[in-house]
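Reviewers of the previous submission asked for a worked example of the structure-prediction workflow described in the proposal, so we include one complete record here. The input consisted solely of the amino acid sequence. No template or homolog information was supplied to the procedure at any stage.
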Amino acid sequence: MNRTTTLPTRVTRTARTLLQGRERGGISVELVVLVIGLFIIAGLVIAGVTAFVTGQLGQLG
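From that input alone, the workflow returned the following structure tokens.
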């Protein structure tokens, strides 16, 4: 894969590949795990940014 490929593009390509595959039963489990993983990563990023901003605001006053 190209290094400039974004994460959403990779996820979309992977999902399309899985949907076009022969094993239809395994798609839902893999897709659910992928989506849950993305939500966890997004939550960690949001928590990190929130903690950083809160720390910077504490230094102002």
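Helices lie at 7-20, 25-60. We consider this example representative of the routine output the project will generate in years two and three.
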